[in-house]
């Protein structure tokens, strides 16, 4: 399917829609979990002690996935496994059909070919749906001076394919609409798999007017009929028995979500919530309840610390009392069964844990964790209608990802497939630190050791947000750094998300001090308790983490020997000006959120300037590497450009890489690999 390089109005709208939907998924405002999961191999349980072996090479962390996705059929009798069977780095995908009653037996192969598949899900007990991403143009990457140029267009044409696993036959959804196929960039957005209507799914597609519409699409023929129509800023819906009852719209800039609900088809849409795309989420949809006009949601109401699961009356917009919550922890995601009913709530404490609606599941999940020596995140994925069989997705600090089939009645695990062939004993182990801070608090941090576990240099890897958090899980950047023989500390400093509103507020208007102090205290704790080299410490991060790296270099020229800022903020005053200028939300909602967190541009001007690395570039002593996407709409590229100018004017050592055609650290894998080589090169020189 060929597409020209001309990008028209609907293509631009579809491209913006894809970016915002990815943010919506990242924030989990919706509780639909039927898409792609990424897997790898942990082995058959506990890691065996072996003689010390060489760590994996940097390139090994960027090898193509062997298994791309796996999903259990609604009946629970088959598992579809999407595997790359190509040789010598070639991509040749096929679906392996696994008999769930005999998962170690022979697997039937359904060829797919050289396609980029983003999601795999069962439409019914016979057909699976795959979303294909088709690049508009090809190309590669080249380095031109300090500019890393991407010739890979970041636009993809997305199409949903329905494959009959009994016959191998396939149909393209919306395939009979030639004009829509030619004009629309995104025809791959499934809103609801309609478990009570196995012949159809609900899909979103943009109309010629630019408005997003909801369609009922046959998985047998690909033909569609209109169900509902939103507006030009609509992102998605949630439904009850095929009727839309929740809708998410973005503002024109894409910095804020508005969530609307209605009790039924004849009711008017009413806004129930709004939230900024960059702040800690405070609401997401879970599922309809058995009672008409009532839904299950997760929400943090005014005056509450954590998000709680509660009912929402879609007509009156009244929230019920909390049904489930954990003190000091926000719910991360809901778990739904094959019918779309609520199974449980996911938390990280610090590994993945569930509060199940069916308490009987708790013992099963604990047994699954013991199977992996309580080291991994055992994530329950697709389940059958009987809630007996589950495809389980396993990840961990030393586990890029693997899939297993769990049979609840038989209490049996069966290995399905692995994302990579990376070996556990060649990866760095992780431990959870309780870090005492200088003012008497205690924060959580993760410390990754090199595979050798020998003391050496330390890298502080600071997360973005800042109202997100690091988890006890697979982190490729941390493992690449550990493979060089370096330790990596990842602090959940005060101001992080996921631990309740009070913990996040501990960082408000304290970007240049308390939040930095927590990072420094985590570094000091790791150095002191593990005997690491205090003279060889570096700091790096992306987005807020990039800011923290630069501010760390300002505050502690005696500590950090290198700083790497990826799409980082360098001047808080400039950032607030940008947010105020670009904010098109009613009553400047998004700008006011940033004022709460950073400070008032007028009243707090001295504080803001003192906390802006660009204003204090002369105080930096270590070499600095700046990386930024040219088209970054979250942190504008001039933040790094101006920091680069300030460092050069001060006579400092700085390297600046600008990635053409990229946004907020969303570049292609080959560019990420090239950048990781630069990061490692700078740190190796700094630690020499």
List the helices and strands and how they pair.
Layout: H1 9-27, E1 67-72, E2 78-84, E3 93-99, E4 108-113, E5 117-122, E6 127-135, E7 141-144, E8 147-150, E9 156-164, E10 170-172, H2 178-183, E11 186-187, E12 189-192, E13 200-206, E14 212-218, E15 224-229, E16 234-240, E17 243-250, E18 256-261, E19 270-276, E20 283-288, E21 294-299, E22 308-313, E23 333-336, E24 342-348, E25 352-356, H3 360-371, E26 377-383, E27 389-396, E28 399-407, E29 412-418, E30 430-436, E31 442-448, E32 458-462, H4 476-482, E33 487-492, H5 501-505, H6 514-530, E34 537-542, H7 544-555, E35 560-566, H8 572-582, H9 589-598, H10 605-610, E36 624-629, H11 638-649, E37 654-659, H12 669-687
Question: Could you give a short description of this structure?
Answer:
With 688 residues, the protein is α+β, with helices and mostly antiparallel strands. The protein is 20% helix and 33% strand.
Oligomer: single chain
Distance between the termini: 51 Å
Round the mean pLDDT to the nearest integer and report it: 88
Number of helical stretches of at least 4 residues: 12
For the biggest β-sheet, the strand order reads 7-8-37-36-35-34-32-33-31-30
Q: How would a crystallographer describe the biggest sheet?
A: 10 strands, mixed
Number of strands: 37
Report on this model:
With 688 residues, the chain is an alpha+beta fold. It contains twelve helices and 37 strands. Strands 7-8-37-36-35-34-32-33-31-30 form a ten-stranded mixed sheet, with helices on both faces. Strands 5, 6, 9, 10 and 11 form a five-stranded mixed sheet that branches. Strand 34, helix 7 and strand 35 form a beta-alpha-beta unit. The radius of gyration is 25 Å and the shape is globular. The model is unreliable at 1-12 and 23-50 (pLDDT under 50).
